[in-house]
């Protein structure tokens, strides 16, 4: 099942649909997820009428991608360090929840107690801003189950307005000095 399908069938989905997140907060996703007011996703690559608007959308997509990479690294490291997640976990859902929480707790403890040994140099993605290069972490070659999936088609006005608002923010008061150089 796709990421979007898993998301729409999980217990978190109805809670989000019923306003779980405070106003102004959102989840970050990619094209695999549905377009929702609480789930922000990138602009697609269809050429647009205004050049200025397209530049701002590229900057927004870049900034959103940076946020998503943090999440990808988190899950990638968890899967590469906890081999139980390399395949379907065959037990009750309540037991799976306990396994995930135990692995997260163990990961956090290892990070605090022995980070240099647990997450060695090159383990996670690194963005070398000084040379404009993205260096993928080793976990990406260690984990085979994480893959890109096809995107479902959906969307509506409020979700687009929230994404446009966020685009304006990252291109104005939320801008960082190096973001424009990353889109060329």
Q: What's this entry about, in short?
A:
The chain has 184 residues and is mainly alpha-helical. It has 6 helices and 4 strands.
The total of beta strands comes to: 4
The gross shape turns out to be: globular
Helix content: 40-55%
SSE class: mainly alpha
Question: Counting H and I runs of at least 4 residues, what is the number of helices?
Answer: 6
Uncertain runs? 145-155
Mean pLDDT: 80
Largest sheet: 2 strands, parallel
* Terminal CA distance: 35 Å
Please provide the ordered H/E string of secondary-structure elements.
Answer: HHEEHHEEHH
Our Rg estimate from Cα atoms comes to: 18 Å
Strand content: 5-15%
How is this structure best described in words?
There is one protein chain. With 184 residues, this protein is mainly alpha-helical. The protein has one domain. It contains 6 helices and 4 strands. The chain has a two-stranded parallel ribbon. It has a two-stranded antiparallel sheet with strand order 3-4. The longest helix has 31 residues, at 51-81. The protein is globular and about 45 Å long.
Topology overview:
Layout: H1 3-8, H2 12-17, E1 27-28, E2 39-40, H3 51-81, H4 93-118, E3 126-128, E4 133-135, H5 139-142, H6 157-171
Parallel strand pairs: 1-2
Antiparallel strand pairs: 3-4
């Amino acid at each position: 099942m796709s990421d979007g399908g898993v998301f729409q069938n999980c217990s978190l989905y109805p809670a989000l649909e019923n306003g779980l997140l405070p106003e102004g907060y959102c989840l970050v996703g990619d094209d695999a997820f549905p377009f929702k007011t609480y789930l922000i996703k990138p602009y697609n690559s269809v050429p647009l009428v205004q050049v200025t608007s397209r530049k701002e959308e590229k900057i927004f997509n870049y900034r959103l991608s940076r946020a998503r990479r943090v999440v990808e690294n988190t899950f990638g490291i968890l899967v590469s360090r906890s081999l139980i997640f390399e395949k379907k976990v065959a037990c009750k859902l309540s037991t799976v929840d306990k396994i995930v929480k135990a692995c997260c707790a163990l990961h956090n403890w290892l990070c605090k107690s022995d980070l240099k040994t647990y997450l060695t140099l090159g383990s996670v993605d690194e963005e070398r801003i000084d040379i404009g290069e993205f260096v993928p972490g080793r976990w990406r070659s260690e984990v085979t189950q994480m893959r890109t999936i096809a995107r479902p088609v959906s969307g509506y006005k409020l979700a687009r307005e929230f994404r446009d608002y966020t685009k304006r923010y990252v291109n104005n008061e939320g801008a960082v000095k190096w973001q424009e150089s990353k889109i060329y």
